[in-house]
Design goal:
The complex is a heterodimer. Chain A is of the alpha+beta class. Chain A has 7 helices and 5 strands, in the order ααααααβββββα. The longest helix of chain A is centred in the N-terminal third of the chain and has 23 residues. Chain A starts with 12 loop residues before the first helix and ends with a helix. In chain A, about 35% of the residues are buried. Chain B is of the alpha/beta class. Helix content of chain B is about 55%, strand content about 20%. Chain B contains 21 helices and 18 strands. In chain B, the strands form 3 sheets. In chain B, strands 10-11-12-13-14-15-16-17 form an 8-stranded mixed beta barrel, surrounded by 4 helices. In chain B, strand 8, helix 10 and strand 9 form a beta-alpha-beta unit. In chain B, helix 7 packs across helix 8 and helix 8 packs antiparallel against helix 9. The longest helix of chain B has about 55 residues. Chains A and B meet through strand 5 of A and helix 1, strand 3 and strand 4 of B.
């Protein structure tokens, strides 16, 4: 079992006001819905203490994967007006539009919130073989050397990577990589992935609202 | 500290601060940049290794990977490269031992650089294989930072030196107008009202310069106006309206000051020209014709060159006087003939058949023991002789001195004897302040005693001393005695003492050298000494006196003018020499309480001397009532019998 708590879905009144102002009452509903789901999953994990961890995990992942996949796919350019925009989970949900990074990001944070360790998760850049297009998915490694399960917005099913020949992995990362082993935290300014850093800052700003 | 210095050091200090701050910021930025570089450098290496290593790492065969890593490592930029598998076991490890950075230890301490570690995942497809951890070596960054520091400091130092020089130049240029202003301001404070020529361009300085110039001009204008007023007043009282020559009063003033000035050499001639039977001429031809004749004679006399500062006067209806100084006997003779022939011409044109004629007599005096009475009476006599002769020729005579009991050589030995045997007496008269009623100074004169102890009359021994050129010796003896008396504990200690000097004394080498030495040794005494020189003497040897003034002023003493007011260049030398005070010739006050012109003149003099910071002392004050007048006129001090007789200082 991982750490419990629902910090990610504790929406402050200020945040709710902001969301309502920007995206309307429907956004509030969607956020509330997420909150309920998240808490539900957390609770069920606690309840299912008897079941093996891996089974519980898979159930939770599948549940959340389906939840997030329900957000309609809209390209960054059409939705946000810029070429490449990494939305925070709140942004994606409230605005009711996401593209491949946004799904992966939202799933990543949602799943982390359940207590699943970041070292088991990897946001992965992939190539869609058929169309030679860039795509992003979330990979779940039950054990470090395992064949990971792919959480993808192209399908609602949680398939192992070996069954996902349609995707070729290129590069993967998670929060962890920003740690320097055995040393004190390196400055976030020397972050290797700028977009990730900006994203973290946006999420921190949301928390402060 | 001068403004120039203040600005200079202030600016230099500010520059220094800026440069130090700049250097600090620069180094800090370089440090931050290099730190980031170390980190991103490590990450780039980790990332590229992460891409390459999966293909190199065959199962359990790390040889290829090691080779590759070695190649990278040997470039020397990395402190360690490690490959770790999923279990955490180290597969490959390369470490560089700590080496000295080649950079001073204090520098490493002051600007520490972290050597961050960076990681990258090694995965084959979806399968994770492990991690690669790279750590940069900070040494190359330290070396770079150190070099940057040195180069930037060198650059900034050069910049600093250049700005130093530029600042110096710049300030000098800008403040040059200030120097001019200061110089002129200094002059003005010395009562020399100059103008500033170069008006600076800077606005503040421009207005200051304009203001100073305006003020200086105004003051000069005021003084010049007062001078013209003073001269007007003086002339009014001393000029004969009809002829433009001096009148009787002017003549008497002139002669009085001449005679008062016994100490100075008097060489010249007195000419008297008298028209005989003038009243009859008037009766027969009318006063108008008479006036014409007088005017023509006056013109003729004026036209004749009588030398520097000659007096031409009409002392009554038909009597003219000419007194010329500084003439040799031959010159005096020639002048006499010139005068008589000039007037002859006038008579020839004007007179016609009537037997009106004139007589001209001349007496030549050579500066010793000239008493006015004797001079006039002798001149009278020779004029009479000329009139009697009736040939309109000048009768020329030498001044005959009054019979003295002793011969000239006897006088010489008497004087020398008195000096050598210390039979010199010092007499003093005090000068009292008009407003305060207190003594301002003591004027001293020297007198000689004969072997019986009796005082030798001044009018006898002074001209003799002059003739034998012993004036300097006497004055030196007086000065020596004064230095003694003015010492601490002496009877004249701490008192301002005025000493009379003459043209002979100030060119006496023995006196000058003794005085210079004594004043240097006793600066306190020197500061209390004032050397008085008569206006007449001043006009005779201006250069010598200017040298003397320079010398005594350098020693702390000062000079003053005695018998002021009769010479036409009186006001010019006042502004040029700026005496400490002037003593007005007694002619302005002796028995003259009723003469408004004199009073106007004196008040004009006061107006002129006030801005020049020169005090005025009135001489020859005999009555208490005159003090009221003095106060009203603004005179500063007075001297005379009203204060009592001269006292001997023992």
């Amino acid at each position: 079992m991982g750490a419990l708590g629902a910090g990610l879905v504790d929406f402050s009144p200020g945040l709710l006001t902001y969301v309502k102002t920007k995206w309307g009452g429907g956004a509030i509903d969607r956020l509330q819905s997420w909150r309920e789901r998240e808490l539900e999953v957390i609770k069920s994990r606690a309840d299912d203490a008897k079941k093996p961890e891996s089974a519980v995990a898979m159930e939770s992942l599948a549940y959340l994967n389906k939840f997030w996949n329900r957000i309609p796919y809209i390209s960054d350019y059409r939705h946000w007006g810029v070429e490449d925009y990494w939305a925070t989970p709140i942004e994606a949900l409230a605005s009711n539009g996401a593209d491949c990074e946004d799904y992966s990001i939202a799933k990543y944070f949602s799943i982390k919130e359940l207590g699943i360790k970041p070292e088991n998760l990897r946001i992965t850049y992939v190539l869609v073989r058929a169309t030679k297009q860039a795509h992003m998915v979330l990979a779940y490694y039950p054990t470090p050397d395992a064949d990971p399960y792919i959480l993808d917005n192209l399908t609602g099913r949680l398939l192992p990577a070996s069954e996902r020949d349609d995707l070729e992995p290129v590069y993967s990362f998670n929060d962890d990589e920003l740690w320097v082993t055995g040393q004190t935290q390196a400055s976030s300014k020397s972050s290797k992935i700028r977009s990730w850093n900006d994203l973290l800052e946006k999420m921190a700003a949301e928390k402060r609202l | 500290m001068t403004l120039h210095r203040q600005l200079y050091w202030g600016a230099l200090f500010a520059f220094l601060l800026i440069l130090v701050a700049t250097e600090g910021i620069y180094i800090r930025n370089a440090h931050t940049y290099l730190q980031e570089q170390l980190s991103s450098h490590a990450q780039d290496a980790a990332t590229s290794l992460g891409v390459v290593l999966p293909t190199l790492l065959a199962d359990n065969d790390t040889a290829k990977a090691e080779l590759y890593i070695n190649a990278m490592f040997d470039r020397g930029y990395y402190q360690s490269i490690r490959v770790v598998n999923l279990k955490g076991e180290t597969l490959i490890e390369k470490d560089l031992a700590a080496t000295p950075s080649g950079v001073p230890a204090f520098f490493v301490k002051a600007f520490p650089l972290d050597a961050p570690k960076a990681e990258s995942l090694i995965s084959k497809g979806w399968r994770q294989m492990g991690r690669v951890v790279v750590q940069s070596h900070p040494n190359f960054a330290y070396k770079q930072l150190w070099r940057t520091l040195l180069e930037s400091i060198a650059g900034l130092v050069v910049l600093y030196l250049i700005s130093w020089l530029a600042l110096k130049r710049f300030l000098t240029l800008i403040l040059k107008p200030l120097n001019d202003i200061v110089a002129v301001a200094g002059d003005i404070s010395q009562r020399n009202f100059r103008l500033i020529d170069n008006v600076p361009k800077a606005m503040e300085l421009k207005s200051v310069v304009r203001a100073i110039n305006l003020m200086s001009e105004k003051l000069r204008g005021i003084i010049e106006f007062e001078i013209s007023q003073a001269l007007r007043f003086r002339d009014e009282s001393t000029k004969d309206v009809m002829t433009g020559l001096m009148n009787r009063r002017g003549y008497e003033q002139y002669m009085q000051s001449l005679i008062e000035d016994q100490k100075n050499q008097l060489t010249g001639a007195m000419y008297m020209l008298q028209v005989s039977s003038f009243q009859e001429y008037n009766k027969l031809n009318g006063f108008q014709k008479g006036d014409e004749l007088i005017k023509r004679i006056a013109e003729a006399i004026t036209a004749t060159d009588c030398g520097k500062d000659a007096l031409r006067a009409r002392i009554n209806g038909a009597t003219f006087m000419v007194v010329a100084s500084g003439l040799s006997r031959a010159e005096a003779l020639a002048l006499g003939e010139k005068l008589s022939s000039a007037v002859s011409t006038v008579f020839a044109e004007q007179v016609g058949e009537l037997t009106v004629t004139f007589g001209c007599g001349a007496v030549y005096f050579n500066g010793h023991g000239v008493s006015l009475k004797a001079l006039i009476s002798q001149c009278d006599m020779v004029t009479l002789q000329s009139t009697t002769a009736g040939n309109q020729q000048t009768v020329f005579a030498d001044f005959v001195e009054e019979e003295s009991v002793m011969g000239s050589q006897d006088w010489k030995s008497l004087i020398l004897d008195a000096i050598n045997n210390n039979r010199l007496a010092i007499f003093s008269q005090s000068v009292v302040g008009v407003r305060s009623g207190e003594a301002l100074q003591i004027e001293v004169v020297g007198r000689l005693r004969d072997t019986d102890g009796a005082m030798i009359p001044a009018q006898l021994f002074i001209p003799m001393a002059n003739r034998h050129k012993l004036t300097g010796t006497i004055d030196l003896a007086i000065i020596k005695r004064l230095f003694d008396k003015m010492r601490v504990g002496g009877s004249l200690a701490g008192v301002e003492v005025a000493i009379n000097t003459s043209t002979q004394s100030i060119s006496d080498p023995e006196l000058l050298s003794w005085l210079a030495t004594a004043m240097k040794k006793n600066p306190a005494i020197a500061r209390k000494m004032v050397f008085e020189i008569s206006e007449f003497g001043l006009t005779q040897d201006r250069e010598g006196i200017e040298r003397f003034i320079k010398m005594i002023r350098a020693a702390g003493a000062d000079f003053a003018v005695d018998n002021f007011g009769l010479h036409h260049s009186a006001f010019e030398y006042l502004q040029a020499l700026k005496p400490k005070y002037i003593k007005l010739s007694p002619v302005y006050f002796k028995g003259r309480d009723d003469d408004p012109s004199s009073q106007f003149f004196v008040s004009s003099v006061v107006s002129i001397t006030r801005p020049l910071d020169i005090k005025i002392i009135a001489l020859g004050i005999e009555k208490q009532e005159t003090l009221v007048l003095l106060r009203n006129l603004g005179v500063d001090g007075y001297q005379g019998y009203v204060n009592g007789e001269m006292l001997e200082i023992k």
